[in-house]
Design brief:
378 residues, six-stranded mixed sheet, five-stranded antiparallel sheet, 13 helices, binds adenosine-5'-triphosphate
């Protein structure tokens, strides 16, 4: 920096008012000095560590610092802390100097979907057996817990819906939340694994706390296999982290009373890889298979998704024959696609041929996807 530039900058910074008295100027200089000193001190201050209180032991606390180590430390002054609180600790002695009022490093409510769904049983095509069972083991205990007390039996805490993608597992879970007037709290297993490295177990704990606060409620865990797959190799820290999250899930499930207004519904497409610990009694001990729809169910699904469409002369019996192996989600896209064919032909009503064209298009897309996958893997 040149001397000229320095002079100019200091002039810009210190630009006294020509009418000011010497006292005014003196005060101005003092204020600037105090401000600069305070700013300088900020740079000198040692940062405080954000830690979690794990346990309280005779007036001291065991804290977990960010690298995962645990220490038994003192608490400054009369700060009151509880297990699970997030606190600031001084770096050298690790003394707790402040409790963070919003005591969680993240708020579980920001990471799960909480809703009062409006999907009703009538929106679900077919699946009568599955609906009957879910009503018995989820809806009834939430609506009439006293019945179970009188009879002296425990309803299952959790049910596991398993079957191929797009077969209506999420819909079933939402429909029972609607019919039992419960809060629906959803989180996706794979997201938990990707987003919450080091925080998964805490998220699970907070999730169950939230569910109890919002009871009656249903916790819906989609893609359970992402956290509850049987693990053979626990070599990586990522695997160990997933295992910790999984163990916390089991602990929470074991810990809560089946009648306290919270039910857990999990869903998976990969039942074959689940750790058997997850389906032990008292956990997800009611298994409900949701298979690809049979003819009767396909008809039900067609009726629901074409219900609001302006269809004319559509032979649904024929469509059902031609959609063997389609999931409910496929049938929904088929109806939308048929609508597009009608629009492309400047018609406001949908004919049978639109559905036929839509089936061919979806088949084409499927085979394109298959050949892309084959290209990628071999
Ligand atoms: P995934 O395993 O991929 O999460 P899923 O089994 O949870 O899938 P849903 O998300 O419930 O499937 O279904 C996807 C969509 O497919 C639904 O929004 C609905 O439109 C349609 N669908 C699936 N099954 C049915 C059904 N039985 N009746 C009516 N619609 C259905």
């Amino acid at each position: 920096m040149t001397v000229g530039k320095l002079k100019k900058e200091s002039k810009d910074f210190y630009n006294p008012n020509p009418n000011a008295t010497v006292q005014d100027e003196n005060q101005l200089l003092k204020n600037s000095l105090n401000y600069l000193k305070a700013e300088l001190n900020k740079f000198k201050e040692l940062p405080l560590l954000v830690s979690e209180v794990k346990k309280i032991v005779n007036g001291k606390v065991i804290i977990k610092v960010p690298n995962g180590s645990h220490f038994l430390v003192n608490i400054a002054g009369d700060i009151k802390v509880n297990t699970g609180d997030t606190v600031l600790v001084e770096q050298r002695s690790l003394t707790v100097v402040q409790k963070l009022e919003d005591s969680k490093s993240f708020d579980v409510e920001d990471f799960v979907i909480i809703e009062k769904p409006n999907i009703s049983w009538n929106d679900v095509g077919g699946l009568e057996e599955q609906i009957k069972e879910i009503k018995e083991v989820v809806e009834l205990p939430l609506l009439k817990p006293e019945l179970f007390k009188q009879v002296g039996i425990d309803a299952p805490k959790g049910i596991l819906l398993h079957g191929p993608p797009g077969t209506g597992k999420t819909m079933l879970a939402k429909a029972v939340a609607t019919s039992s007037n419960s809060t629906f709290i959803e989180f996706v297993g794979s997201e938990l694994v990707q987003k919450f490295i080091g925080e998964g177990a805490k998220l699970v704990r907070d999730l169950f706390r939230l569910a109890r606060e919002r009871a009656p409620s249903i916790i819906f865990i989609d893609e359970l296999d992402a956290i509850a797959a049987e693990r053979v190799d626990m070599g990586t820290s990522g695997e160990r982290e997933v295992q910790r999250t999984f163990m916390q899930l089991l602990t929470e499930m074991d810990g809560f009373n089946s009648l306290d207004g919270v039910k857990i519904i999990a869903a998976t497409n990969r039942f074959d890889i689940l750790d058997p610990a997850v389906i032990r009694p008292g956990r997800f001990d009611r298994l409900i298979q949701v298979p690809l729809p049979d003819e009767k169910t396909r008809l039900g699904i067609f009726k629901i998704h074409s219900g609001r469409m302006n269809v004319s002369n559509v032979n649904f019996d024929k469509l059902i024959e031609d959609t063997e192996g389609f999931s409910g989600a496929d049938i929904k896209s088929l109806c939308t696609e048929a609508g597009y064919f009608a629009i492309r032909n400047n018609r406001s009503h949908i004919l049978h041929e639109d559905f036929v064209n839509a089936i061919s298009k979806l088949d084409e897309l499927d085979s394109e996807e298959d050949s892309n996958c084959a290209g990628m893997f071999g």
